[in-house]
Design goal:
Blueprint lengths: L3 E3 L7 E2 L4 H9 L7 E6 L4 E9 L5 E9 L5 E8 L3 H14 L1 E7 L18 H12 L8 E4 L2 H7 L21 E5 L6 E2 L10 E5 L7 H9 L3 E4 L7 H15 L4
Parallel strand pairs: 1-3, 6-7, 6-11, 7-8, 9-11, 9-12, 10-12
Antiparallel strand pairs: 2-5, 3-4, 4-5
Length: about 260
């Protein structure tokens, strides 16, 4: 853990002995009563935690002093096709680690329909993956996550024009219309590598490993998306997500 994240309701209380944060502090970092460590409040500030007391039952009483706000977010919204649960967990972790503003999961024509039956979004697994990514980045914020049955529904709702629950919307921080990009190495209209630097926010859609259907490509075109490639190779969805977010981080400004 690069930062110990606490929830608001945990302030002023002891962390249980078997809590993974307690284990990390005492067994991995070898912290003792009176020691300090880097900490933060989930969706709040970053600061310094202090172990005030190690209780008889092995729980630890921690205090927290805030010192700074969380790092700025990347003005990037990522839409990702459903993939296998183990891959989806890695994607959520890595995109959270990159600091994207929001993540949308979408059903697609060529994606495996059974992947939509995952319990990842209902059993707490998605939240855990997002928090894991934030901890790695020494961040306290996680991107809001939404799920859509189809690309059609996502394009119809255009969520990038609305404000997420716990972050300023992409358009709220910039009067500029966002760049709309769909990753496509089959019928690309241009290359991601050749896009110019921009102060505009971005919305990027990444499809399943079988790619987009021609019907979906037409939908993107009607919705104002530019189809761009990152080369001729067909990438795994999780690889394409990370590569696209890294390229976007080089081309657009943070909040």
């Amino acid at each position: 853990m690069n930062i110990i994240l606490l929830e608001e309701h945990e302030l002023g209380r002891s962390l249980p002995r078997r809590d993974k944060r307690t284990i990390h502090l005492l067994k991995v970092l070898h912290k003792k009563a009176g020691d300090t460590f880097e900490a933060g409040v989930l969706d709040g500030d970053i600061g310094t935690g202090k172990i005030e007391k190690i209780n008889f039952d092995g729980s630890v009483f921690i205090t927290f002093q805030k010192t700074m706000p969380p790092p700025p977010r990347l003005r990037l919204r990522m839409a990702v096709a459903f993939v296998r649960q183990i891959q989806m967990r890695r994607i959520l972790r890595e995109l959270s680690n990159m600091g994207v503003s929001a993540i949308d999961i979408i059903g697609t024509d060529l994606g495996e329909k059974s992947y939509r039956d995952t319990k990842l979004f209902t059993d707490g697994g998605s939240v855990s993956a997002l928090i894991e990514g934030a901890i790695q980045a020494r961040d306290t914020q996680t991107p809001p996550l939404s799920v859509y049955d189809s690309l059609d529904k996502w394009l119809e709702e255009r969520p990038w024009e609305k404000s997420p629950a716990n972050l300023s919307g992409l358009l709220a921080v910039s009067s500029r219309i966002p760049i709309l990009l769909a990753m496509d190495n089959v019928r690309a209209e241009g290359s991601f590598f050749h896009l110019s630097q921009s102060s505009r926010p971005a919305v990027i859609a990444v499809g399943p490993e079988r790619g987009w259907s021609d019907r979906e490509r037409d939908l993107f075109e009607k919705a104002g998306f530019l189809r761009v490639s990152m080369g001729k190779r067909a990438l795994r969805t999780e690889t394409a997500c990370v590569a696209a977010s890294i390229l976007a981080a080089e081309k657009i400004e943070e909040y």
